[in-house]
Amino acid sequence: MKQKWVSLLRDRLVWFVALGLGLFAIDYASGKRLESRILIDLPLVEKLVAQWEGQTKRRPSAQELDALVEGYIREEILVREAKRLGLDDEDVIIRRRLAQKVEFFLDENNPPELPDEAGLQQWFEKNRASYDTPAKLTWRHIYASDEAQARDLLRQVRNGQITGGQAEDWRALGQPFMLNRAYTRQDQLEMGQIMGADFAATLFDAKTATPAKGWVGPVRSAYGWHLVAVDTRYETQAARFLTIADKVAKDWANEQGRLAKLEAWRELRASYDIELVPVEEK
Q1: What does pLDDT average to over the chain?
Q2: Which site from 2, 6, 10, 156 is most exposed, i.e. has the minimal number of CB atoms within 10 Å?
Q3: Structural domain that includes position 123
Q4: Total number of domains constituting the chain
Q5: pLDDT above 50 for 138
Q6: Separation between Cα atoms, residue 180 and residue 223, nearest integer Å
């Protein structure tokens, strides 16, 4: 037996394996120590102080700073334990939060240099529709239970049997309606969001509904049928560049930021190979 041990001790392969196991054990122990080590250095403390000042507008006291450091230590330990337990693998909230943080990084591009006044005005003209004040209507309506009732009400109004004028209680005509009976200075988009796009398009067609025509209809909405009276029509007002130059500059910067973020995402997306796994037929 003794001779066997002597033989093993002289075997270089045994020493090589033993040395490898020793180095592995040292590396493992060192890694475990690093995993359990939390470093509190000056940059970290300065970061905690800056966060505190940003929220409170003053520097923390010594006691408050101790609490900040202890809070960081607690959070760091809990985060490491969560990772060790694999709690971050399938958590939807964590996934979305991480994705949101990357989007913030994509937003942090260097702001583009503002063009000169001529260039900014050219961009304004290209996007003028966003700045012009749209046409608006002040209007009211009578809600009918169906198209036939709406036509009958319109016939009575036009024959003078009922006037439905502003001087009398026109709100009592027709059927009850869950929303407003009258709207003031409403543009086509606002009207479309409430009553439906087709209804809004019909009213904003100057040939269909004008203050001079009084009650018109029946006009169909997302809710049913209506008689409509346009009391005032406000035409589109063209925007003047000089009066809104600051807003145009801000909008231009936001648009350039959006385009830069979109391009950054395209580059990031292109750096990944997406493979669709075919569904196995049973």
Answers
A1: 79
A2: 2
A3: 101-129+241-272
A4: 3
A5: yes
A6: 13
